[in-house]
Design a protein that fits this description.
Blueprint: H1 19-28, E1 32-39, E2 45-48, E3 53-56, H2 73-76, E4 82-92, E5 98-103, H3 105-114, E6 124-133, E7 136-142, E8 145-150, E9 171-180, E10 183-187, H4 195-199, E11 207-216, E12 219-225, E13 228-232, E14 243-252, E15 257-265, E16 285-287, E17 298-300
Parallel strand pairs: 3-5, 13-15
Antiparallel strand pairs: 1-2, 1-4, 2-3, 4-5, 6-7, 6-9, 7-8, 9-10, 11-12, 11-14, 12-13, 14-15, 16-17
Length: about 300
């Protein structure tokens, strides 16, 4: 079975018509998704099932809640979003009305045992960005199970915050960097192209758009692509995050240098989708620097 990040596969969306279909779902053990309509005072999640409402009890809301490793904010934050679950059975409320009981925890445990436990270092997977913090991007790697891409693994070009590279809810590609004591760390920069692959998209004499990433005493670093930046001479007043047009003065592969001249400021535009140079498979070694360059920059998985 293939396990997806939550909210990605619309075919999993529950739309039961009657209790007979719910009973069939209990017997099959299939995985479904539904929108969280409410997180009540006991932090139970109320799910839209189509003809009726289902309940994910607090302790079944996520792996780690029962053990105290995960805080209730992990449940509260799901209101208005889709979550995965399997139909566990029926129960009765205080008034004697029938309730459809669901479990998200059960699905996450299954995903961890059957899928996540078998991801190899260097293996490329699809994930969904769930939260951005100053130190990195949290991603859903399957059924709401979260892992981290540290900020320095989002791209070769340095950024001050992950929001400069990603957006919450975005579907991305990434590769497993390490697995330590059950903790998985992912990386994305190796999929965004080597120095040569990115530099091949630009030519001396062109004027192109870029983003100022830092202003130093000796020049201005301008990002041309997530894995490629050049150095421009100090001129006028520019600041980090500003979009500018730059003239490409020279490209020097052996030194991994691109010399630029800032021409003018540009009107901010919607960020372009990431360009991936590798989209599937398993990477064992990735070399960013060109052969013959002054220094070797590589990742060994």
């Amino acid at each position: 079975m293939k396990f997806y990040p939550e909210g990605v596969n619309d075919s999993l969306l529950a739309d039961f018509k009657n209790y007979d279909e719910v009973k069939a779902a209990i017997e099959s053990g299939d995985i479904y998704e539904g929108r969280v309509m409410l997180c009540d005072r006991e932090h139970n999640l109320h799910i839209d099932l189509g003809f009726a409402e289902g309940i994910i009890p607090r302790n079944e809301g996520a792996v780690g809640i029962l053990e105290g490793r995960v805080r209730d904010i992990a449940l509260i934050s799901k209101v208005g979003k889709r979550v995965c679950f399997r139909v566990a059975g029926f129960s009765r409320d205080a008034q004697g009305d029938r309730m459809i009981m669901l479990s998200r925890r059960n699905v996450q445990l299954r995903c961890m045992n059957e899928y996540i436990a078998h991801i190899r270092p260097g293996e490329i997977i699809e994930a969904r960005v769930t939260r951005l913090e100053g130190f990195g991007a949290f991603i859903d790697i399957g059924c709401g199970v979260n892992s981290l891409i540290p900020i320095d693994m989002l791209s070769v070009s340095r950024i001050s915050h992950p929001r400069e590279r990603l957006a919450e809810g975005e579907l991305i590609k990434c590769a497993l960097k390490s697995r330590e004591a059950g903790k998985l760390t992912f990386t994305m920069k190796e999929l965004l192209g080597t120095w040569e692959e990115n530099a091949a998209r630009f030519f001396v004499g062109e004027t192109v758009e870029g983003i100022v990433r830092s202003v130093e005493s000796y020049g201005v670093f301008v990002e041309l692509a997530p894995n490629l930046a050049g150095l421009a001479e100090l001129t006028g007043t520019v600041s980090a995050g500003e979009r500018v047009s730059v003239f490409i003065k020279s490209i020097i592969p052996e030194r991994m240098k691109i010399k630029l001249v800032i021409v003018d400021s540009c009107t901010p535009v919607e960020e372009k989708a990431l360009t991936y140079f590798i989209t599937s498979g398993v990477i064992s070694r990735w070399q960013y620097s060109p052969n013959g360059a002054d220094r070797v920059i590589e990742t060994v998985f």
